[in-house]
Structure formats: C-alpha cells, structure tokens
C-alpha cells in the first residue's frame, strides 16, 4: 500500500472538548442556577442581567436578548474569538494529528 497523502490533515475528536462547566468558568462566564440549563451574563452584548442560557450537558448556549447561540463549547469558542472550526478545535485540544 502507498500512502496517498504525505501531509496529515488531523481530525476533530469531540470527546476531547473540555467539560462545559469548566470551560465556561475558564472563560470568565459565571453560571448561575442548577440543572442542565444555567444563566449567565452574555459576553456578546452589553448584558446587565443574565440573559445567556447555557446547557452544561451539551455546552450549548443561547442569548435571549441578542440571539447569539450555538450547540457546544466549540461553537462558543468560534463565536467569541472569530475562529474557524479547525482553529477553534485546536485551541480547545480537540484536534488530533496533522502537521500543525
Ligand atoms: Zn447576548
């Protein structure tokens, strides 16, 4: 068998994404309440009362005021820092392999 590619591309490994609660804490997002959905101040608009709903089981988030939303901590990281999928996955340690 011949290797078809000399340059490895790497791949996304979802299970390597950080724990949702620890991730949001590391981002300075204070989660209030208990259960799957927590409340927090939204970092995407000038928020004065907790408008952001965070699902700590999946990492998803949704702002009831500005409409910012995503399905997991990767989406949050992409949104907050303006990163593409791969760059955000690398930043969170969820991109494995590849040359970079
Ligand atoms: Zn918002």
UniProtKB/TrEMBL annotation:
Keyword Transmembrane helix in annotation: no
The answer to keyword Cell membrane applying to this record is no
Transmembrane parts of this sequence: none
Q: Which domain of life is it from?
A: Bacteria
**InterPro entries associated with the record:** DNA_primase_Znf_CHC2, DnaG_primase, Znf_CHC2
Q: Which Gene3D superfamilies match?
A: Zinc finger, CHC2-type domain
Keyword line: Metal-binding, Zinc, Zinc-finger
**Protein name, entry field:** Zinc finger CHC2-type domain-containing protein
